[in-house]
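User: Can you model how tryptophan sits in this protein?
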Amino acid sequence: MFADRVLSGMRPTGGLHLGHYHGVLKNWVKMQQEFECLFFVADWHALTTHYDTPQVIEQNVWDMVIDWLAAGVDPAQATLFIQSRVPEHAELHLLLSMITPLGWLERVPTYKDQQERLSEKDLSTYGFLGYPLLQSADILIYRSTQVPVGEDQVPHIEFTREIARRFNHIYGREAGFEEKAEAAVKRLGSKKAKLYTSLRTRFQEQGDSEALESAKSLLDEQQSLSMGDRERLFGYLEGGGKMILSEPMPMLTAASRMPGLDGQKMSKSYNNTISLREDEASVAKKIRTMPTDPARVRRSDPGTPEKCPVWQLHQVYSNTDIRQWVQQGCTTAGIGCIECKQPVIDAVLEEQKPMHERAQQYLDDPTLVRNIIADGCEKARKLAGETMRDVREAMGLSYS
Ligand code: TRP
Ligand code: SF4
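Assistant: Here's the modeled complex, given as structure tokens:
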């Protein structure tokens, strides 16, 4: 029941660049081979900040999906879909809003930060305050176990865990839960029942999280448990009731800070990006005109790679031989900056070549992309529907 399921989303707020590739997409491509993965376009989330420019969404959505495909995200391995085409997200968001304390939303650090950072926009809206809750709905509706995100999003995952816990606490109580749970423990057989009970005690009395993990894997291994007993036993481990929504874990990817053309982090707001599918001439031109160590005014002036943004790109793209050549050549004025940049240009173009190739078929035939997304949305709706059945029932909405 709790097999790993990875979910992640991206807002369609502009074309993707190599920072997204190195920071996020490379990781998605790797994970799709290891886990069940769902990747989606968070177009409603884009509207929370860009509600006044809805005309940009459409183009950004399709460009972004093509960028994903170009980067190697494989629709045969991962499910790709668009948030607004799975309206169940909105329903869960609404239902969760009933139990979400305002203070929890106001305390999410991104709320005030973003309002300040985007002060030219009026973000004192209901939708913007609810951003993290909509994200919780995205995550919980698939019973996702892992959510790959950047550092800045960790508070949203924490918030999601708290919402799931609160939901289970309020709605996960069934009449006679304790008795039913104890009966389920017995059905594990005496040896496993004893083990389960002692692990549960260790967790509940000493907060021993290793014991909790062991108990969970013990349950994972029990093939013959009924669905109901399984839910009860998981719920009973951590507290009161049935676990209707499961708590996700953030999955932090090794911090890969992709340097931009000026040495700062690559980011649209610094205007220092190379886009994922930038054409070759433009890539070459951007790198050729990059600033270098200001000490190298003339070709004969030696420089210090550590003071040069090009060196940072060598660290991403070049092997040790080339890096040694740079160190040696720069510090002795043995090479010029144009020469030094060439291997970086070559490596970026090499990296982008398969991306251009993959993208081309989708640019030639946009219906391919539409079909991939239509399939993905259908799969997502089916999964979302399963969770919603349980949620509606728990919240007293399944009456006839
Ligand atoms: N808030 C995320 C971001 O800005 C995008 C997002 C929306 C998301 N829903 C999500 C990410 C669910 C992970 C899971 O990057
Ligand atoms: Fe930078 Fe290379 Fe020029 Fe040195 S030689 S300043 S590392 S571009």
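A couple of observations from the model: The longest strand covers residues 5-10. The beta strands are 5-10, 36-41, 78-82, 146-149, 249-252.
User: Helpful, thanks.
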